[in-house]
Amino acid sequence: MALSDSLSNYFALEEHGTDLRTEIIAGITTFLTMSYIVVVNPSILAGIPGEKPGIIVQGYSPPEVQSMLAVVTIIAAATATLVMAFYANRPFGQAPGLGLNAFFAFTVVGALGIPWQTALAAVVVEGIVFILLTAVGAREYVIRAFPEPVKFAVGTGIGLFLAIIGLQAMGIVVDDPATLVQLGAVASDPVAIVSIVGLLFTFALYARGIKGSIVLGIVATAAMGWVVANAGVVGSDAAGRLVAGGPSATYDITPLAGAFVSGLADIEAFTFALVVFTFFFVDFFDTAGTLTGVAQIAGFLDDDGNLPDIDKPLMADAVGTTVGGMLGTSTVTTYVESAAGVEEGGRTGMTAFVVALLFLGSLAVVPLAAAIPLYASHIALVVIGVVMLGNVVDIAWDDLSYAIPAGMTILVMPLTYSIATGIAAGIVTYPIVNAARGEWDDIRPGHWALAAAFVLYYVVRTNTLA
């Protein structure tokens, strides 16, 4: 039997109304739309001593750490997507998620001061919890434990959070002692000028529906910066900021792999639990929401609007997260960009299999991750952040029981630079607002318990900081 026939039979292509050629094209399409993560995830997770929080490995330069993270990103994405292909037989691509990687670097490592090894341990613990809950079929119980308006608002809040991180890296938004933030020197700062041109170029490609538009935009912006830096039209300081630190690259991931084990020592239980909770919350509901949305496009949903056997793709996510944390990256999730492949006709795990193979093939371009400057890679954060704002339409703004908790989640998240604090604001607000409106039937004991836990945590933490 030919390989093509074996694949067709294994993935039941005929039963799903598709063929091998369609699935391959769909897989290529999905990979092109999400491949930016190979460059962007390392740029977010890698720290720069004295400049940016994140993973800093003694004895290795930031570009070398970025290349390590690129390798880990690829392996984690390929592992999760292979599980999606062969276990779940669904056409969904997976990789370390935007938002949670920013939470990892800027909030957990940066604001909370938790060692990156301990942050990885939290990712691994979250992944194991996810695996156990999925294995026992506890998805419905988990979903009921969280207020619905908070679940709907998290995506929009993360979009704003990503956008402000990206705009800061690009020099478009800068800090101000009086107003906290203000517009940067966009007419005189070469980094800001190149960033704006690159961002507008990327938006244009994205609006035209060009496959791989974000990757093209990132590479074009980095190339533009290199040309300006070497054209002699800017000073040496500006030229140094326009190009990456150097082409240093390494495929040796041993400094990252297994680092979570040392992170389990001397943990502060309550703070560690909060980090695990936040990773789990965002990962679970982001994945469940993405799976449902993309499955709707594919026509997979049943009459009740549910995805049959959703536990299988959720398990792929959980396995990917656990493996990724063990190797050295943040939480893995299902990518909404999978919709691009579904729209091309992808209906089975064969599409995911192609995505996984292409991720493995991208190991050849790992040095590129270290050669892309921060402002260029963070264009992706702004583009994806804008796209994620579309989630706001799912919120019932005419119902104050939804509008207030959702609004607090969305506002607090970017303004405190913390996904966890935004989620906490929504969870604390929800039972209070519903109780005030006399809507007791909508409040569960778990809502009060979560709200009380968050209040206790922030009372203790802010008093400690004070």
- The number of helical runs is 22
Q: Give the overall shape, derived from the CA principal axes.
A: globular
Fraction of residues in helix: 55-70%
H-E order: HHHHEHHHHEEHHHHHHEHHHHHHHH
Strand count, sense and closure of the main sheet?
Answer: 2 strands, antiparallel
Low-confidence stretches: none
Rg over CA atoms: 22 Å
Integer count of domains = 1
N→C terminal distance: 70 Å
**β-strand amount:** under 5%
The residue-averaged pLDDT reads: 90
- Summing up helix and strand content along with how strands pair, one would put the structural category as mainly alpha
Tell me how many strands there are.
4
Adjacency order of strands in the biggest sheet: 1-4
Pfam family, one: Xan_ur_permease
Keywords: Cell membrane, Membrane, Transmembrane, Transmembrane helix, Transport
Subcellular location: Cell membrane
Transmembrane segments: 24-48, 68-88, 95-114, 120-138, 150-174, 180-207, 214-236, 352-372, 378-397, 409-433, 445-460
Features:
single chain, 466 residues, mainly alpha, two-stranded antiparallel sheet, 4 strands, 66% helix
Element layout with pairings:
Layout: H1 3-10, H2 20-34, H3 37-45, H4 62-88, E1 94-96, H5 100-111, H6 116-135, H7 139-144, H8 148-169, E2 173-176, E3 180-183, H9 190-207, H10 213-230, H11 236-242, H12 259-263, H13 269-298, H14 311-327, E4 332-334, H15 338-343, H16 349-361, H17 366-371, H18 374-377, H19 379-388, H20 400-415, H21 419-436, H22 445-465
Antiparallel strand pairs: 1-4, 2-3
Helix pairs in contact: 2-16, 3-4, 4-14, 4-16, 6-13, 6-14, 8-19, 8-20, 8-21, 9-10, 10-11, 20-21, 21-22
